[in-house]
Amino acid sequence: MKSVKIKKEPLMRLFAYLPPYKFYIFLALIAMVAAAAGSSLMALLMGKLTDLGFYQKNGLVAIWAPIALIGISVLHGGGQFCSSYLLQKVSQEILVKLRSLMFDHMIRWPEEVVQSQESGRVVSRFVNEASQALSGASQVLTVLVRDSLQVAALLCVLFWHNWQLTLVTFIVAPILIYILRTVSKRLKKLTSDSQVTFGQILSQLNETYRSERLIKVYNAYKFEEERFGHINRRLKGLTMRQQIVKGLGTPATQLVSICGVAIVVCVALLQAQRGQLSLAEFVTYISAMLLMMPAIRKLAGLNGTIASMGAAAESLFEMIDIPLEKDPGSKDIERVKGNVEFKNVWYKYPNTLEPSLKDFSLKAEAGKMIAFVGASGAGKSTIINMIPRFMVPTKGEIFFDGTSQNEMTLESIRRQVAIVTQEVMLFDGTIAANIAFGAGRPVTDEEIMQAAEAAYLKPLIDSLPEGLQTRIGEGGSKLSGGQRQRVSIARALLKNAPILLLDEATSALDTESEKYIQASLDKLREGRTSFVVAHRLSTIVDADMIVVMDQGAVVEAGTHFELLENDGPYARLYKIQFSHQKAGKPETQEV
């Protein structure tokens, strides 16, 4: 991933992406010059037509004037098209680069950053603000260069014909500048607020789509409609306020410009009465002014575009500037045996007072199974998340085969770990692609099928016409909860990592499937270190060590039978779950 030179201003950073496309920009500039020249020639032609056609009665004018008009129009229109196309091409190339850079950064954010971001806001930056910034940049370049050239060329015509009259037009310049500055400042604030609100709409749409069954079963339609309506109305209000500012700004600049034209016409008529200005000169002058007015209006409207583009660019670079995960060390270890040690590890979540893990120490030998039980918030998942370094200890160290994580690269650390969580993440692809995801090497269909069989997926695959190549929908929506979990387990099996993390990995399985999964996991754990978070104690009775957690500290630890003999928290929980099991009740109680 290439680094980007950071500039102070977001707009300057955005335009810093232009140099690689200087050839296209150069061609666009030539096209803009042609378009500007077309406008100037049109004004001069109108004056010549008046002089030669109406005063001198030149018969050839009727022949060459239409040809000249068509030729100048082709020059002007062709220049406009070519410049717009070339700059749009540059804009789209940079847009692809920026979105790729944003994506590269996003997937490398630290875990606490990911948790603090609204998904809708992130999507809005990718979809809305990236496009807004780059389309705005293309429009700014087009208008700023092409229309500025056109205004400059037409001003030359005006000064050449009557410099005194042209100076009169500058009377209105200070008023125009004041209007533009006021509109720009207000639009930037409104645009920024609109972007945040649009992100909130996307977040709620995502939440609502994922929770549609919950909304239906609780008849929460009205609540969700009101919640969405509130944000939607706020966005409408911001959009209308933007439109008011734009709508008042443009007519205001036009009115001031027309006042300038009115003054010019008044002075021109006075000069004509004194014989200082001919009709041909007046026609040329007015034609140039009228041709210049659309360009001035575009330049005036550019103010709002720059304000919106600046707000969008600022939002993009805020995302890009978020610090990435730090590579703790430089050691690249291909494969560890699986010895894991926690040494006096503490962890405190950002913006919390109490640590969630307190002076935690543990040695897990290669091939052993370590299980964690405890109430929600006891620190079980924190421990699991520290092993692949999703979370970095506030104090203390974690070792793989005696090597501190602080000395290893992130890639090396995560190469050692396979994970299956309670919340299954699948992609909109085939079963085969989801199982092969993250293997870190090319895999054959035979290897994928072996992993699928070990996860008890073969009956499902055999029942599907396309087998492993069956598409499973977004998030695995075409599969049941248990089937999704088994695909996730097959993925972990295929990775064949020396350290296995199972966070309620069998919680979504039916009893029959769980028996097959437990058998496959027993085989998988041979020669591998397994860390298991479980509420069903029946799944961890064979663990080499069971660690009971409470409020970030170890309450007791030992084998299943040792803990039963201790008659502590684990024994009490086991008796409760065992009695529930005999009564046919679910095993849901926690320590």
List keywords for this structure.
alpha/beta; ABC transporter transmembrane region fold; Rossmann fold; 2 domains; six-stranded mixed β-sheet; four-stranded antiparallel β-sheet; elongated; disordered N terminus
Q: What is the arithmetic mean of pLDDT?
A: 81
**Main β sheet profile:** 6 strands, mixed
Number of domains: 2
Q: What does the overall shape look like?
A: elongated
Which structural class do the helices and strands define?
alpha/beta
Q: What is the number of helical segments per DSSP (H or I, 4+ residues)?
A: 19
In helices, the fraction of residues equals 55-70%
> Could you state the CATH homologous superfamily of the largest domain?
ABC transporter type 1, transmembrane domain
**What's the order of the H and E elements?**
HHHHHHHHHHEEEHEEHEHHHHEHEEEHH
Name given to the CATH architecture of the largest domain: Up-down Bundle
Strand order of the largest sheet: 6-7-8-3-9-10
CATH-derived topology of the largest domain? ABC transporter transmembrane region fold
Strand content: 5-15%
- Oligomeric status: single chain
The CATH class designation of the largest domain is: Mainly Alpha
The total strand number stands at 10
